[in-house]
Design brief:
This protein is 69% helix and 0% strand. It is built from 11 helices and no strands. Helix 6 (104-132) packs antiparallel against helix 7 (138-152).
């Protein structure tokens, strides 16, 4: 079967990648419904967006959900996200003391964030980059682009009342965590491991941080421990950055290329 033409992707792949972000964020229209129902609706709409994306590029694209490695290998590849989860607990413990406030609302909020953010900042953006970008370093290029956009977008938390210092810290950690999440997607060929890991991280963070409100916004800066918290975030971010870069190191480039060449194979 002849491969379909996608002019924008072919002529301006970086622009096409960036435009997938607002497309992915369309799922947030579900947030007009208040409470947990709205959270669930956003998550469902995010999946719908990805299904439509897969169908748009069908049949040459295998889709964002189908993994190219075994379950065991997917778990191993996803394991660096443990750094983010442990880091969140440590930072929250330093900044606001012990807190444990699990709720169904936080669970739905975490699932929403995992599905919505992985859709908007990685699933489509990286898939397009791995098809239409040229050169041997395209895997690193898509990781950097997706991670920077993912981090910088957190500046919008300020409009919802977030603390400035904590928002800056969140941007740094989001960029570095984005490196790992992008690497997971590249190495597994599926967005599902990243969605699950992202949701687990957010849930743990929500229930152990007393400064996060029901909307998932950090509303206050830690009192009396800003320096320690800042140093902790920098250290954990550095570890995450190293992990993300290590996951897409030169020796893994061929494996990543094979995965994505397989995912973008035209059925004959």
């Amino acid at each position: 079967m002849e491969e379909k033409k996608h002019s924008l992707c072919e002529k301006s792949p970086v622009l096409a990648m960036i435009l997938t972000v607002p497309l992915g964020l369309l799922s947030q229209l579900g947030s007009i419904v208040p409470g947990t129902v709205g959270h669930i609706l956003v998550a469902v709409l995010a999946i719908v967006v990805l299904v439509l994306f897969d169908n748009w590029f069908s049949p040459e694209f295998e889709g964002v959900f189908k993994p190219c490695v075994s379950l065991k290998e997917s778990l191993i590849i996803t394991s660096p996200m443990i750094i983010v989860i442990i880091g969140a607990v440590i930072i929250n413990g330093i900044s606001c003391g012990f807190s444990f406030k699990p709720s169904f609302s936080y669970l739905c909020l975490a699932v929403m964030a995992g599905c919505n953010e992985e859709t908007a900042f990685r699933a489509m953006l990286i898939a397009i980059g791995m098809k239409y970008l040229k050169g041997n370093n395209r895997s690193r290029t898509v990781v950097i682009i997706s991670s920077v956009i993912f981090g910088v977008i957190h500046v919008t938390n300020l409009t919802a009342g977030a603390d400035l210092v904590m928002t800056i810290a969140q941007i740094l950690m989001a960029i570095c965590a984005g490196l790992v999440l992008a690497a997971i997607y590249l190495r597994t060929g599926s967005i599902i491991p990243g969605m699950i890991a992202h949701s687990i991280y957010d849930f743990i963070n929500f229930i152990t941080d007393s400064t996060i409100n029901e909307s998932g916004i950090v509303t206050a800066a830690p009192e009396g421990s800003k320096t320690i918290v800042a140093v902790s975030i920098i250290i954990i971010s550095a570890i995450l950055a190293f992990a993300g870069i290590f996951m897409i190191r030169k020796s893994k480039t061929d494996d990543i290329e094979k995965i994505w060449q397989k995912k973008w194979t035209v059925d004959q």
